[in-house]
Write a structure and sequence with these properties.
Layout (H helix, E strand, L loop, with lengths): L6 E8 L3 H12 L6 E4 L8 E9 L3 H12 L6 E2 L1 E6 L4 E6 L3 H14 L20 H10 L11 E7 L18 E2 L2 E7 L5 E9 L1
Antiparallel strand pairs: 1-3, 1-9, 2-7, 4-8, 5-6, 6-7, 9-10
Length: 205
């Protein structure tokens, strides 16, 4: 399937506190090597995706309204850092607890937004989908996001490694408090790999 014309990936994400965001840039920069595809810093910054899918450009205003509906009455909650993970897709991530508050926000966004996505039931296979198992295929078809519901993995990406070059030993990380209270939800345009690049709307909670 060809990429749909006049469409954009929209990433609804949590932005951590300034101090935690800076810590992530510092940590990511220590991972620099010929085997890392990108690092945090400059135009790449720490963010935690809550929901992401592709939408027709003509529907972006509706998506913003639906995000606002999901956040109506929302209150601040804590995102608790739990460790690190290297995924099958060669991403090195910082992991967070799958708390009831976070899952409630995730599921509310799906409920209010996913019906607006482009090509419901038959999504374009995005670059960030791979590797793409049967459960991810089902989630993508139902919601537009491969990591929806039980597969949702709250995380902040630190880097991605080139093919066949994930570290043999897990990197050592400084002991720093990376938990934070959520106060800001942002809606961004994202590139074909799901990386955010243009802010559309900020919601303070």
């Amino acid at each position: 399937m060809n990429k749909p014309l006049n469409s954009t990936i929209i990433n609804v994400c949590i932005i951590p506190s300034d101090s935690v965001g800076k810590s992530y840039v510092d940590i990511s920069q220590t991972l620099k090597s010929p085997n890392t595809i990108f690092l945090l810093g400059g135009d790449k910054f720490a963010h935690m995706t809550v929901f992401m899918a592709r939408f027709a450009d003509s529907d972006i205003d509706k998506v913003i309204g639906a995000v606002g509906l999901s956040l109506s009455g929302a209150s601040r909650f804590n995102c608790r850092h739990t460790g690190y993970l290297i995924t099958e897709g060669r991403y090195l991530e910082s992991s967070y607890r799958k708390s009831p508050n976070l899952m409630s926000l995730h599921e509310s966004l799906i409920e209010n937004i996913c019906h607006l996505r482009i090509n419901p039931g038959n999504p374009y296979e995005e670059g960030y989908f791979a590797p793409y198992n049967s459960r991810q295929q089902q989630n993508a078809a139902e919601t537009g996001y491969d990591l929806a519901y039980d597969l949702y993995r709250p995380h902040i990406t630190l880097t991605r490694y080139t093919d066949s070059n994930t570290p043999e030993y897990f990197p050592a990380f400084p002991e720093v408090n990376l938990s934070f209270d959520v106060s800001k939800i942002c809606v961004y345009k994202a590139d074909d790999n799901g990386a955010v690049y243009e802010l559309i709307k900020t919601f303070e909670i």
